[in-house]
Amino acid sequence: MNTKLSWFSQQQTLFLQGELDRETLRPLWQQRQTLLAGKTILDLSQLQRVDSSGLALLFHFLQQQGATLKITGISEQLGTLITLYNLSEFIDAAT
After folding, report:
1. How much is the pTM?
2. Residue 81 · residue 50 · CB < 8 Å
3. How far apart are CA 62 and CA 79, in angstroms?
4. CATH numeric code, 6-84
5. Pair type for strands 13-20 and 41-50
6. Can you give 30-54 as a three-state secondary structure string?
7. How many CB atoms lie within 10 A of CB 2?
8. N- to C-terminal Cα distance for the chain?
9. pLDDT digits (tens, 9 = 90+) for 56-87
């Protein structure tokens, strides 16, 4: 059973909470333009789980926003996925 995905903004940071996977990411995808407008940080520290679909969404966010978006709060599990998919050059798993 998946935990719901939720998010909130504080200044220039968008915080994600819950699980980011193929079952929960659709609302985030549909609102991405509005949610990312003016954001420079995407904080993942409150996510319990991210699957490969969630990683693909995060990668898309980075491509869409360019160098203006920084991802923080990357868990060890997500860092492993980033490494397995050879995305370390695009997503800094050390943050």
Report:
1. 0.90
2. yes
3. 16
4. 3.30.750.24
5. parallel
6. HCHHHHHCCCCEEEEEEEEEECHHH
7. 14
8. 29
9. 999 999 998 877 899 999 999 999 999 999 99
